[in-house]
């Protein structure tokens, strides 16, 4: 006799009631804390081992914005337009502008965009990351739990795009319209190399772990290409979010800029024809050891933010 039949026999229940009971049990299991969504722990959890990186972050606009961005008249106008009262209490704003950590059953804003904004909420992977195990083993295990390593460059760039390209999956069309109509900026010229290799650069790698190393031109050429790949995927996927003229114009400009360089990279042909995250990751794997300065050429920035 099947499990369903045995339950019906023991409890004298009809098939529908038994099915509902089983579904209820399964939903309860799937909703236990061990299966809940990963949450952020805050930048101080990273500070102990990554002091140099933390020091760079402390001086960055990401960190400094925490104490002042919500005070501006423009911010207050935007918050009101999306139906909120206070920027730090509005989930839509917190997605990009803050680091929200779990305190018991509640969440508390503790910083501006920080470590986990780029590398993923750490609750499920921090112990793996901190374990004394071979790095390759940790990379695989922590990645499976949501960590985005610097070596996973396409995913890092995609994370940047979720905010800098107004491409966050949680951002809906009506909110986009309200934000743009009330003065929220949208930057169609966001470029990963210029943004990441300036004031927010934190490249402390062996053997010079105390030196914030400048990326080589070859490295920047690869980053430029992958940044544009992430721009293409994010902008293409965002076009259907909103028909707002400014939003459409910005996303189309990002697509055109990305294609202008990606069409010159043979390995990017599949991505250009089908802009998906999987194809973006495949492109990174294909070019991560190549020097593309001859193709990227003058596209590399001369100054950095």
Q: Record the strand order, biggest sheet.
A: 1-2
Shape: globular
Structural class: mainly alpha
Biggest sheet record: 2 strands, antiparallel
Describe this structure in a few short sentences.
By secondary structure, the chain is mostly helical. Helix content is 53%, strand content 4%.
What does this structure look like?
- The protein is mainly alpha-helical and 305 residues long.
- The protein has three domains: 3-33; 38-140, no CATH class; 150-305, no CATH class.
- It is 53% helix and 4% strand.
- The protein is built from 18 helices and two strands.
- It has helices spanning 3-11, 15-30, 44-47, 51-58, 61-64, 73-81, 91-97, 115-119, 126-130, 135-144, 153-164, 173-181, 192-196, 217-238, 245-262, 269-273, 277-287, 293-296; strands at residues 99-103, 106-111.
- A two-stranded antiparallel sheet has the order 1-2.
- The N and C termini lie far apart (69 Å).
Sequence-ordered SSE layout with sheet pairings:
Elements: H1 3-11, H2 15-30, H3 44-47, H4 51-58, H5 61-64, H6 73-81, H7 91-97, E1 99-103, E2 106-111, H8 115-119, H9 126-130, H10 135-144, H11 153-164, H12 173-181, H13 192-196, H14 217-238, H15 245-262, H16 269-273, H17 277-287, H18 293-296
Helix pairs in contact: 11-14, 11-17, 14-15, 14-17
């Amino acid at each position: 006799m099947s499990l369903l039949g045995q339950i019906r026999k023991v409890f004298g229940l009809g098939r529908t009631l038994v099915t509902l009971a089983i579904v209820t049990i399964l939903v309860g299991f799937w909703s236990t804390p061990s299966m809940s969504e990963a949450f952020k722990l805050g930048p101080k959890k990273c500070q102990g081992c990554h002091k140099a990186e933390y020091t760079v972050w402390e001086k960055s606009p990401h960190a400094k914005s925490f104490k002042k961005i919500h005070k501006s008249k423009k911010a207050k106008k935007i918050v009101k337009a999306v139906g909120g009262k206070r920027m730090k209490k509005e989930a839509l704003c917190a997605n990009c502008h803050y680091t929200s950590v779990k305190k018991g059953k509640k969440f508390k804003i503790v910083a501006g965009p920080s470590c986990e904004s780029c590398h993923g909420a750490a609750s499920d992977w921090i112990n793996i990351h901190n374990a004394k195990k071979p790095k390759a083993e940790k990379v695989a295990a922590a990645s499976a739990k949501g960590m985005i390593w610097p070596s996973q460059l396409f995913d890092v760039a995609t994370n940047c795009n979720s905010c800098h390209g107004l491409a966050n999956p949680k951002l809906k069309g009506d909110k986009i319209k309200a934000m743009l109509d009330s003065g929220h900026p949208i930057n169609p010229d966001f470029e990963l190399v210029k943004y990441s290799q300036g004031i927010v650069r934190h490249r402390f790698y062996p053997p010079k772990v105390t030196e914030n190393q400048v990326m080589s031109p070859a490295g920047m050429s690869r980053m430029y290409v992958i940044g544009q790949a992430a721009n293409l995927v994010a902008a293409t996927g965002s076009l259907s979010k909103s028909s707002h003229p400014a939003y459409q114009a910005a996303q189309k400009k990002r697509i055109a800029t990305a294609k202008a360089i990606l069409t010159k990279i043979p390995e990017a042909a599949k991505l250009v024809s089908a802009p998906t995250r999987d194809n973006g990751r495949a492109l990174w794997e294909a070019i991560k050891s190549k020097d593309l300065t001859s193709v990227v050429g003058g596209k590399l920035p001369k100054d950095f933010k």
